[in-house]
């Protein structure tokens, strides 16, 4: 049942990203092009997501426990370490260069966009490399 609910939530997220136009890398890159063809729609999509998330957190934290778990799994680390900074920087640079983030690239696979396949393949290779380097 957990997998079905997770799949449904992922589908809803993917539809929202698609309807917001965030699977189009040109639309995302235009958000970063402040001096040229600036497109503020990404800010509206992110702002809407923040509002929905805030409401969701308010509702969820009133519950004694999650529906499918005994307790909430909340991160306890609060430090900012080099892997966090490096990962965030790499994510930002990659997003700025490619116009894709994982949330937009995965739904774009359904449109058979070659750039999405290249991005997702590179992302998976990077995840594998990071996991391999972390183990050594």
From TrEMBL:
The keyword Transmembrane applies. Keywords: Membrane, Transmembrane, Transmembrane helix. The chain crosses the membrane at residues 44-61, 82-106, 112-130. InterPro entries: DUF6691. It comes from the Bacteria. This is YeeE/YedE family protein. The lineage of its organism: Bacteria, Pseudomonadati, Pseudomonadota, Alphaproteobacteria, Rhodobacterales.
């Amino acid at each position: 049942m957990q997998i079905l609910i997770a799949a449904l939530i992922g589908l809803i997220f993917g539809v929202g990203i698609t309807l917001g136009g965030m699977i189009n890398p040109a639309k995302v890159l235009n958000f970063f092009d402040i001096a040229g063809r600036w497109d503020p729609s990404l800010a509206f999509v992110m702002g809407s997501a923040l509002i929905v998330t805030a409401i969701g957190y308010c509702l969820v934290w009133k519950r004694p426990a999650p529906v499918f778990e005994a307790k909430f799994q909340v991160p306890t680390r609060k430090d900012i370490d080099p892997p966090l900074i490096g990962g965030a920087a790499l994510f930002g640079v990659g997003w700025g260069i490619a116009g894709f983030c994982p949330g937009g690239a995965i739904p774009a696979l359904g449109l058979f966009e070659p750039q999405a396949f290249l991005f997702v393949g590179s992302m998976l290779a990077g995840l594998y490399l990071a996991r391999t380097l972390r183990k050594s």
